[in-house]
Amino acid sequence: MELTPSLHRIGNDVVAAYFVVTPAGVTVIDAGLPGLHAELVAELALIGRSLADVKGLILTHGDGDHIGFAERLRREHGVPVFIHAGDAARAKGGAKPKNAKQQMRLGALLGFVAYTLRKGGAKTTWLTEVVELQGGETLDLPGSPQIIPMPGHSEGSIAVFVPGVDAVFVGDALTTRHVLTGAVGPAPAPFTDEPEQALDSLSALVETRATWVLPGHGAPWSGGVAAAVEAVRAAARRC
């Protein structure tokens, strides 16, 4: 899906990943599920690009439904994979904290599981080598992505701000479609390690003043980051 000529999404509202296109090449943000690799190749081909144009892949965190095709890009194409040091072990298959009991609706849960299985989620290949980030960096990659620490969903969760496309990629710092209930609109993401910390971290997003807010789950939000963050906080108060 082309959001703008320089900004593209692959996947769907269940699980999504993104890439930014510049004359210098392509930066991919998150890797969704393994089966999205084919969608990445196809979407790049539509704009006359290929995997050879991909200069780097940034992971917003290390959960299995975000690292999908990352190791494949690294092994087969030499693409460096960047992740915050706090989530490096998780992206390599390490243990993650047990979350509190989650709200869910059967239909939405089954839809999430079915899509995950259809896109190879049961055969996730964990990372074996990563470039560790500390937060606050501006990377030497197409679009000059800026790394914003967003601890809460996981210890090493980050957001990625790309000023040239007026977009901030938030991973699971928030969601616009709850994968377990099907509820739509900006809200806290499920499976969050530290919910209160995750809400506190949202303040860092507002400083970007980005128009596009792009989550790992749910529809792209083009109503501005301040409105998205306020909507998430309002949803949290209703819980």
Topology of this structure?
Elements: E1 2-4, E2 7-11, E3 16-22, E4 25-29, H1 36-46, E5 54-58, H2 64-67, H3 70-77, E6 81-84, H4 88-91, H5 106-118, E7 131-133, E8 146-149, E9 158-162, E10 167-171, E11 175-177, E12 184-187, H6 195-201, H7 203-206, E13 212-215, H8 225-238
Parallel strand pairs: 4-5, 5-6, 6-7, 10-13
Antiparallel strand pairs: 1-2, 2-3, 3-4, 8-9, 9-10, 11-12
- Unreliable residue runs: none
The total count of strands amounts to 13
Provide the β-strand percentage band.
Answer: 15-25%
Question: What string gives the helices and strands in order?
Answer: EEEEHEHHEHHEEEEEEHHEH
Q: Report the oligomer.
A: single chain
The largest pleated sheet is described as: 7 strands, mixed
